[in-house]
């Protein structure tokens, strides 16, 4: 599901926007370099993201936008994707421990189970 082009985008620095898509709108940002991808699951360190966590209690649907100007896109320089998924916050377990070792400041890990990834540019 996560194409080679998307993986290439994630290997370059860029902004990731995380948007809840249920009844409660919440938006936050992080960096491509903070993400870990394992098959069709993305893990993000969370220190804040309290509005995202609250919104996910009633609907765990998320939209992530990712991009990098360093990767060729559909019309020239710059590639970007919309990633649709389901989010869950982890406070323990192997994924939490691995991210905590990378980012000692995190309090939780946002796990995104990818449903669809679509290149936009």
UniProtKB/TrEMBL annotation:
SUPFAM superfamilies: FMN-binding split barrel (SSF50475). InterPro entries: Split_barrel_FMN-bd. It comes from the Bacteria. This is FMN-binding protein.
């Amino acid at each position: 599901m996560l194409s080679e082009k998307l993986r290439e985008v994630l290997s370059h620095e860029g902004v990731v926007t995380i948007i809840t898509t249920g009844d409660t709108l919440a938006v936050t940002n992080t960096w491509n370099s903070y993400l870990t991808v394992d098959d069709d699951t993305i893990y993000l360190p969370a220190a804040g993201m309290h509005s995202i966590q609250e919104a996910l209690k009633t609907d765990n649907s998320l939209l992530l936008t990712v991009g990098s100007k360093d990767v060729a896109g559909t019309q020239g320089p710059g590639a970007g994707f919309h990633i649709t998924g389901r989010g869950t916050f982890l406070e323990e377990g192997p994924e939490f421990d691995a991210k905590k070792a990378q980012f000692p400041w995190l309090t939780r890990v946002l796990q995104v189970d990818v449903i669809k990834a679509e290149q936009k540019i």
